[in-house]
Amino acid sequence: MSSYAPKTDLWIERSRLAGMLLGCVSYGVFFLLTVQSCIALMRWPQYGAGRRLALLFYVVVTFVLRTISVAANTKYTEMIWIDLRNVPGGPLALIEDEMHYRINVLALSSGHIGEWLMQALLLYRCFAIWNWARCVTIPMITLFLAMIGLSIFIQVEASVGIAFYNISIEPAYLGIQVGLNVFYTILVTYRLLDMRNRMKELVAQYDSRFYNTLILIIVESAMAYSIFAIIFIVAFALHLNGITTLCFLSIGQVQGISQLFIIIRVATGRAYTREYWSSRVAAVPATTVFSGTILDATEERLTRPGQNIVQTSAKAADVDVCIA
Q: Any stretches that span the bilayer, and where are they (predicted)?
């Protein structure tokens, strides 16, 4: 009497299960930070309702999209070892040909849309810090549109059942995502360093902790996602399917966690906020005119009998809003 023995690859099968567990853990962290972000934003007194609502909308929408993606991946993991365990090829065939099932296309699509929103927030921060300079906005928007185009192409290929590991442009899509994060980090860090150096020239014994803290926040948030994504890209390019699976089910949550950390630190005041910056502005000489993203100087001409007085005042720009 013969029995059917499906082909197996225990490393890939174990990595799928371990990747799903890791994805659930990262989703738990993402959920916790989402709740903390919403609470912190609701208590954010420094800025108007419009800004708070915009960030709340971003936090809620990205959370919903990540929830759909994680839920779909969890359901398919259940299907692999329970609902469809007797299909020809067994669990390994289900893992390798997962895009034949619409639930995985849903997981991939919702994940990609969430990544678009996360990258859009990065672009807004970068453009605001650079005062929407064309030399920055045009290249970054071009990369962003290229990323969206590749994402749509990936989803079209996935919808016709092509195996995920055979989608050759997936590394290019992730490469552009990492590139946007790296360029954002470099551009914003350079801009903040430049502003810090200018303030040191203008103000004797200037306390640069404000800029140092912002730079540290940006680098920390970008580093975690970039390292994770690079591991995924290398594993995908080398066809290390086990490592690819481990990273794939968590990469969206890691990206979201990185951005939520920034929002929470700014909204709760653990980064230097507007009040701290306003106290720094008081040290600027009254005759100093400095215009830029960090400090916005204004001039008011006063007409008095026999006098033409130029009164210069400086006010804090919303640097923490740009970062958050």
A: 20-41, 53-72, 140-165, 171-193, 214-237, 243-264
Q: What is the C-alpha radius of gyration for the chain, rounded to an integer number of angstroms?
A: 24
Query: 46 and 177: one domain?
Result: yes
Phi (first) and psi of residue 223, to 5 degrees = -65, -45
pLDDT of 121-139, one tens digit each?
Answer: 989 989 988 989 999 999 9
Q: Check residue 180 and give left, alpha or beta (phi > 0: left; psi -120 to 50: alpha).
A: alpha
State residue 150's pLDDT score. Answer: 92
**290 and 168 part of one domain:** no
Residues 271 and 301 in one domain: no
Q: Is the pTM of this model over 0.90?
A: no
Q: Which residue, 202, 199, 221, 197, is CA-closest to 271?
A: 221
Whether residues 264 and 142 share a domain: the answer is yes
In the chain, the number of structural domains is: 2
How buried is residue 87: exposed, middle or buried, by Cβ count under 10 Å (0-12/13-18/19+)?
middle
Count of Cβ atoms closer than 10 Å to residue 224 Cβ? 14
Annotate 67-133 with DSSP letters as a single string. Answer: HHHHHHHHHHHHIIIIITTTSTTHHHHHHHTGGGSHHHHHHHHHHHHHHHHHHHHHHHHHHHHTTT-
245-281 pLDDT tens trace: 888 888 889 989 988 988 888 777 654 444 444 444 4
- Residue 67, Cβ density class (10 Å: 0-12 exposed, 13-18 middle, ≥19 buried): middle
Q: In this structure, are residues 127 and 136 in contact, taking their beta carbons and an 8 Å threshold?
A: yes
DSSP string, 10-49: HHHHHHHHHHHHHHHHHHHHHHHHHHHHHHHHHT--SS-H
H or E stretch including 316?
A: strand 307-316
Domain at 97, CATH number: 1.20.1070
Query: Amino acid identity, residue 1?
Result: M
Q: Which domain holds residue 73?
A: 10-279
Read off the tokens for 138.
């045009």
